[in-house]
Amino acid sequence: MMTAQSTCLDNIRPRKSVRGLLLGTAASLAFAGIATTAHAQDAVDEIDEANVITVVARKQTETLQEVPVTVTAIGGDTLEKFQVNEIADVVSRVPALNVQVGGSGSGGQISLRGVGSSNISASFDSAVAFDFDGVQVSTMRIVQAGFFDVEQIDVLKGPQSLFFGKSASAGVFSIRSANPTRDWEMAGKASYEFEEKGYTIGGHISGPISDTLGIRVAAQYQDIEDYVKLAPGTPAFNPDGTIRDSRGISSFVSRVTLQWDPADNFNANLKLNYIKNKNDGAIGHTDINCGANGVADPVYLLSGAVVIPSNADCKSKDGLYHTSDPAAALAANVPTGSGGDPRFENGVPYGDTEIFFGRLKWDLDLSDYLTLSSVSGYLSLDAIDTDCYAYVGQFANGAPGNAGCSDPVNKTEQFTQELRVTSDLDGMFNFMVGAFYETRDIDFNTSQQGVNISFLGADPVTGFTYDWYKKQNTKTEALSFFASATLAFTDQLELSGGLRWTDEKKVSRISVPYVHTFLSSTPAFISSGFFSGPITFKDSNFSPEVSIKYQATPDVNVYAAFKTGFKSGGIDNSALPSNSLLGFNDPDPAVRAAVADSLKFKSETGLGGEVGVKAQFADRSFTLNTSLFYYVFDDLQVQTFDAAAVQFLTFNASQLTSQGVDVEWGWRTPVEGLNLSGSVAYTDAEFTAPFVTTSGQDLNGRQAARAPKFAGNAAFDWSIPMGDALELGLNGNVQYSGSYFTNEDSLNDLRQDSYVSFDGSVSVGDPDGKWKLSLIGVNLTDKIWNNTSSGRPFLQPGVGDDLVVTQNRGRQVFVEAAFKF
Question: Which tens digits make up the pLDDT trace of 5-25?
Answer without folding.
Answer: 444 443 333 333 333 333 333
